[in-house]
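Provenance and format

Records in this collection were gathered into a single text stream. Each protein contributes a sequence line and a token line. The two records reproduced below are adjacent in the stream.
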Amino acid sequence: MKMQWILICALLFALITAVFAVVNVEPVLVNFIFAQTSTPLILVILTSTLLGGLIVGLFGMVRQYKLHRKVRHLEKQLHDAVLPPAAQPVKDTASEASPTVH
């Protein structure tokens, strides 16, 4: 249900941004430090929205990656705590080294 609300809010934001951008089509002067250019305001609005979404998405991916690593580390700690090293099953390498012929 949470994902549905997020999707609804995202679509609502996209609709509001699109309407706002279409209403503002007059050219504006964009001043980069090294150059100036005149471009329609609709492009400035849509580009800013897109770049903002990409930046937020990248931060979200980094956060999710860190949380995933932390979960794996904690699961390993839990496994080691439940099964101490002396009680862990020993891998039988002798049976794997000699193939069984039937």
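Adjacent record:
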Amino acid sequence: MIQSMTGYGAATLSSPNYKVTVELKSLNSKFLEATLKLPRVYLKYENRVRAALNRKLERGKVMMVMNVEVLNPDKRTLNVNRALVKRYYKELTEIAEFLGIPPKIDLALLLELPEVIPTEVEQEDPEEWQLVEQALSQAIDQMVESRKEEGAALDRDLARCVAAISAALEEVKVEAPRRLEDVRSRIDQAMVDLRRKVEIDRNRFEQELIFYVEKLDINEEIVRLSQHLTFFEELRQSDENNGKQLQFLSQEMGREINTIGSKANDAHIQRLVVGMKDELDKIKEQVLNIL
């Protein structure tokens, strides 16, 4: 089943002590590029979070925001450096006396001064981490489902585009022999006209004609393009994530279509080629977003 690289997932879990929210968004990218916004206490577990994302998301530009709300104040400790607060107060009072102004010192200002409340990394609570893991897992699962839903829409578009190219190719197959016969007829007529004026080596002319017709023959390109379309459909219907292979295959299909167009020298086939190119452009745009 095709998965899109565009998706969204979110989960919120609560306990009497904590409330954990994880939100995920993703866009297309050649690799897994994860941007994480984690609470300070969990920065040391960043690699563990990235590993969880990589196991199920594989590719895409993923943006994750995690918030942890403490519902029970007893689960967090507040350490105030009282000695430093006293020192700040003493220094500010002396400065006020030196300047000859009243020492109006705000407590809130003192608490915001450097190192008054140390920014030590707190120890995680096992209960809190368990909620974090569960919320992260649920958010990832929701994103996978979101990617599958969008992937189903991409799959329908790809199937339609491939069917359109296949139908046009069938017309090209029918037109190709007629086109070569037309070329032969025009050259034969030109030769008849020319022989009325000059002497022509018939054998040499036949050899040159065969060489020229072979250069215009598009049968090999038709066969290869048909094979590419068959393989594309196999990959599209596979349970594996084949986005990179589909991108490569769409490039190969483009080469064959372009060659058919350059060799064709036929108005009807050229119109069919233009239609195939249009459908292929849609395919190339879609496969960029496939996992």
